[in-house]
Amino acid sequence: MKRQAPASQRLRGRRAGVSRGDVTLPSPAGVALTFPEGAALIVGCGNIGGAAALRLGEAGVPVVLTYRGNARRARALVRQIQARGGQARAHQLDLLQDAAVGRVVRDCARDFGRLHSVVYAAGPPIPFLRVRDMPPRTLERHLLADSLGCFRLFHHAIPVLERGGGGSLTAIVTMANYRAIDTDGLSAIPKAAVESLVRQVAAEEAAAGIRANAVPIGWVGGFASSFAEARAYTAAMTGPEAPATRALMERLMSFIRMGRPGTAQEVGNIVAFLASEQASYVTGCVIAADGGAIL
Ligand SMILES: NC(=O)c1ccc[n+]([C@@H]2O[C@H](COP(=O)([O-])OP(=O)(O)OC[C@H]3O[C@@H](n4cnc5c(N)ncnc54)[C@H](OP(=O)(O)O)[C@@H]3O)[C@@H](O)[C@H]2O)c1
To answer: What is the pTM of this model?
Structure first.
């Protein structure tokens, strides 16, 4: 049985039909997202992972979300999804623990009959540092938690997805790999490896029915919903990181053509699309949600 989102939650097509030579692709009222039976695993339920979990939960997909330390947020998300009629549960998971990653992935498939989608939306908090000021041990910790963490997740997920008949892997990365932002190296360098991993897996696992895609994001407002609010927020900052944070935010805002931060819901919509059957021929792609920042 296919799961279909309610009409109010469907992505609306703009045209009644699209002509391609002698083929007309029917697209009557809109594009409904459908999903196979089984669950989605969302690793990292912060700003982006939380929105992706809500979006998939609303679409009727049972969702397993993981947190490292913030159990309260995870439990609140689970309650929110359940209150909207969805199925959800939360697990503590530290991506540094290889055996635990494998266990969580296998448990999802066992408990829900199948795991069809895995979303990597995790990463440690990022101090803003130039490479010249970055202690090698700091970069090492970020590579272990972020790049290697995503590697562990995908490595353990691939055989589980394959046993279920295929599925989708999606990783949240950063636009800073396309337009360098001074002091943002601890985000960009590990996420570059994550993006490479996505392409590698997409090439190697297409024959197994496994798709892998990356979503670079620009700035998704957590602390501010407009540039004005962001300026007020950073202006009030104190401490040694404040000047670098202000400079980074100004640079980032100067890149964003749409003149506003994105919302986590906007990224959640893309994640849901990539996990859906409507993205069945999409793999190895980089679909940015950055308001035009990398143009
Ligand atoms: N938001 C943006 O504008 C933006 C822009 C570019 C890139 N990014 C990157 O995109 C990713 C998601 O962004 P976000 O805004 O959703 O970040 P966020 O709100 O800080 O959430 C990060 C999530 O990762 C989890 N996590 C951290 N270290 C972990 C570990 N070792 N093992 C397992 N989970 C771990 C955190 O768990 P706990 O909270 O429980 O510790 C949290 O759930 C991050 O890597 C971020 O740097 C974000």
So the answer is: 0.91
pLDDT tens string 112-139: 999 999 999 999 999 999 999 999 999 9
Ligand 1: which residues within 6 Å by Cβ?
Answer: 44-49, 67-70, 93-96, 121-124, 126, 145, 149, 172, 174, 187, 217, 219-220, 222
Give the relative orientation of helices 148-163 and 98-112 as an angle to the nearest 10 degrees: 30
Report DSSP state, residue 77: H
The span from the CA of 269 to the CA of 15, in Å, is 20
CATH 3.40.50.720 fits 37-223+261-279, yes or no: yes
- As given in the structure block, the two tokens for residue 265 are 């819901």
CA-closest residue to ligand 1 atom 33: 94
Q: DSSP E strands: which ranges in the chain?
A: 3-4, 17-20, 23-26, 34-35, 39-43, 63-67, 88-92, 115-120, 167-174, 210-217
30: confidence class by pLDDT, cuts 50, 70, 90: low
**Confidence grade of residue 23 (pLDDT, cut at 50, 70, 90):** very low
The full set of domain ranges for the chain reads 37-223+261-279
